[in-house]
Amino acid sequence: MMCLLLWRTAPTARRPAYGLVLFLACLVMFSAVKNGHADSPQPLKIVAFGTSLTARGGWQPALETGLSVCLQRPVKVESVAKSGETSLWALTQVDRVVAAQPDIILIELYANDATLHRFVSLAQSRKNIGEILDQLRQRLPQARIIVMAMNPFSGLRGLIRPFADSYVSAHQTEAEIRGLEFVDHRPNWERLTPDDLARAIPDGVHPLPDVASKIIAPELAKRIAGNNCGE
């Protein structure tokens, strides 16, 4: 419509001279609109890869909003996550993460490995996360990969994970020896009083989404966009 208006308003005597230039300009405009570049930048795409702490986390919308404000661009967070699953399952899901072509990958895959009844040894868990990280680095070389430790566990859910800290340390080590980032959210949770922490994580493992949004999202926004973000 804009191209037609320009053509109609051009002086009649000069229309032949304007023709080629106008055609090329309109072609560029059409291409930009078709590809979504005309008015806004492409969204920053994030994939959150993990367990129920991601699948049921509820912190993703807050991260989208906070980062979008900081970066002044759209942000989209997708999840590849399933409750009750381990790093063995995650090995079968790498294709899904790669297919999303994310700019950033957030990974938490230790929580169910650490449960006694899943029978994923510490050595196996460390091997699995290493293979996952290697595949992602190879297949998504431009993506920023951030391995995470989430919230503390308590009650029965904590008792069945007596060596959870060792699993976190193993995943952290595998990230750091590859030069990847690691974010530990647990200190921010532990700043809550014992009563507030118990109310925030009533079943001992899954935080309430509104509290998770206030603790996890700002920390991630700060790590991704800089120290002035998320405050």
TrEMBL record:
<dbReference type="InterPro" id="IPR036514">
    <property type="entry name" value="SGNH_hydro_sf"/>
</dbReference>
<dbReference type="InterPro" id="IPR001087">
    <property type="entry name" value="GDSL"/>
</dbReference>
<dbReference type="GO" id="GO:0016787">
    <property type="term" value="F:hydrolase activity"/>
</dbReference>
<dbReference type="Pfam" id="PF00657">
    <property type="entry name" value="Lipase_GDSL"/>
</dbReference>
<keyword id="KW-0378">Hydrolase</keyword>
<protein>
    <submittedName>
        <fullName>SGNH/GDSL hydrolase family protein</fullName>
    </submittedName>
</protein>
<dbReference type="InterPro" id="IPR051532">
    <property type="entry name" value="Ester_Hydrolysis_Enzymes"/>
</dbReference>
